[in-house]
TrEMBL record:
Xref: CDD domains: OAT_like (cd00610)
Cofactor(s) annotated in UniProt: pyridoxal 5'-phosphate
Family from the record: Belongs to the class-III pyridoxal-phosphate-dependent aminotransferase family.
GO MF entries: identical protein binding; pyridoxal phosphate binding; transaminase activity
Protein name: 4-aminobutyrate aminotransferase
The keyword Transferase is annotated on this UniProt entry: yes
Pfam families named in the record: Aminotran_3
Alphabetic keyword roster: Aminotransferase, Pyridoxal phosphate, Transferase
Organism per entry: Marasmius oreades (fairy-ring Marasmius)
């Protein structure tokens, strides 16, 4: 055994059992759309480390900006003084905001921390306590974020009591309403908004409800873009009842769906917008954006964190924003999105495969394919009704086969869904290669 194989064994013994791992092996290098392993494997990365390395691994301009910053200043604590990259980053983000009212920024390290800050702000600023969230939502693993996470029991099993006062409503997704997959988005939207009205009448009074938190594209819960009428409906309810609309774009934001932020498509103004993941292309950084008029009401010292808005991460994020603009990355998202959708729709219409495929959906390069499933929705809308054959564990089997064939691919927490999260600057050739590997894996998995 080689020293790195020994290290792998060492890891199996000494790293917590609480972590799941998609593949064995030690990742040693990343370059563009590929990662390399100690055993010589070169893998096409359609996960981007769960939607993070949006400009590919180790983008030279991002790495250079971080390396130069590293030699200048590594840590400038945000409660001690401003540092330049923090402010330069705000300059770059302002023109990308989905609404010009969003002009007051606070940077953290992780998505979860940013969600915590948003929840606290909503309580402080409205003087109210309860929070409405979505079934299928994922907002993170800390106690507050976990309180509004409703996508899979494993995240919170044995952990309760979580933050109290969280009320889930159904997202406009057919699974959550016991309706067939072909149900139109306007019907789903009406069903969801009706449930919201019931919630406010029966369980949490508007006078006690401070906010609605929503992922405009449900992420871990199945990669489902919200119809714009749904987001508009949430905005109206928030306006009517003095509640804040918290939009979590940790996974779908920063170019992933082809615009800087997905919520832009609906014209809806968030009161608080949360971003992370692709923001610094791998360096830990998240952001909470709101209106000055609101954040001016927060007492100095009520927000903070030792590493929040780290100077190296902010320098990297400045470079990310520059590369996004200089290299017309959003245009590439549109082109590669069309290529990916067209490949997946061809599979969806293929005689052998179509019986298994329920849905191809998403936006930009946040795309999913859903298969007929027995768990956990079988009891609700089962395969007999949907006329689709069920292959239990199909999504995971496909992901495993993709890995054997040299491509990293993830499933989502909910249902039988595989998700495609390639780099936003992926080339046409690499996209073609990825689609080819996926097709082979899918054909073998259903055979
Ligand atoms: N919100 C959303 C929408 C997410 O997808 C995630 C992470 N998958 C989080 C919050 C939590 O972010 P982090 O893992 O950085 O804490």
């Amino acid at each position: 055994t080689t020293p790195l194989e020994q290290l792998q064994d060492f890891g199996e013994h000494h790293v917590t059992g609480g972590l799941a791992r998609l593949t064995k092996g030690i990742m040693t290098k990343g370059e563009g759309s590929h990662v390399y392993f100690q055993d010589g494997r070169k893998m096409l990365d359609f996960t981007c480390g769960i939607g993070v390395t949006n400009l590919g691994h180790c983008h030279p301009k991002v790495s250079k900006a971080a390396a130069e910053q590293c030699l200048r200043l590594n840590h400038a604590q945000c409660s001690i003084a401003f540092h330049e990259p923090y402010l330069r980053l705000i300059e770059r983000l302002l023109p990308a905001m989905p609404d010009e009212s969003l002009d007051s920024f606070f940077f953290w390290n992780s998505g979860s921390e940013a969600v915590e800050a948003a929840l606290k702000m909503a309580r402080i600023l409205t003087g109210k306590q309860n929070i409405i969230c979505m079934q299928g939502a994922y907002h993170g693993r800390t106690f507050g974020a976990l309180g509004v996470t409703k996508s899979k029991t494993i995240y919170g099993e044995g952990v309760a009591p979580l933050m109290p006062g969280t009320f889930p409503m159904p997202f406009p997704y057919w699974h959550q309403h016991n309706l067939p997959p072909s149900t139109s988005s306007s019907v789903l939207t009406a069903h969801s908004l009706y449930q919201l009205h019931l919630l406010l009448a029966q369980q949490t009074a508007p006078s006690e409800t401070c906010a609605i938190i929503v992922e405009p594209v449900l992420g871990e819960g199945g990669y489902i873009p919200a119809p714009k009428e749904f987001l508009q409906g949430l905005r109206e309810v928030c306006d009517k009842h003095n509640m804040l609309l918290i939009v979590d774009e940790v996974q779908c934001g920063f170019g992933r769906t082809g615009s800087w932020f997905f919520v832009e498509e609906s014209g809806v103004r968030p009161d608080i917008l949360i971003m992370a993941k692709g923001l610094a292309n791998g360096f830990p950084l998240s952001g909470v954006v709101s209106r000055r008029e609101l954040t001016n009401k927060l007492k100095p010292g009520s927000m903070g964190g030792t590493y929040a808005g780290n100077v190296v991460s902010c320098a990297a994020a400045c470079a990310v924003a520059d590369v996004m603009r200089e290299e017309n990355v959003l245009e590439n998202v549109q082109a590669r999105s069309q290529q990916l959708f067209s490949a997946l729709r061809t599979l969806q219409n293929d005689g052998t495969l179509s019986p298994y495929i329920l849905d191809v959906r998403g936006r930009g390069l946040m795309v999913a394919m859903e298969f007929a499933s027995s768990e956990p929705v079988g009891a609700v809308y089962d395969s007999a009704k949907s006329q689709k054959p069920v292959k239990k564990g199909l999504a995971s089997r496909i992901a495993k086969k993709c890995i054997e064939k040299g491509m990293l691919l993830l499933t989502t927490s909910a249902y039988e869904v595989v998700r495609f999260i390639p780099p936003l600057n992926i080339t046409q050739q690499d996209m073609e290669k990825g689609c080819g590997i996926f097709e082979e894996a899918l054909r073998e998995a259903v055979a």
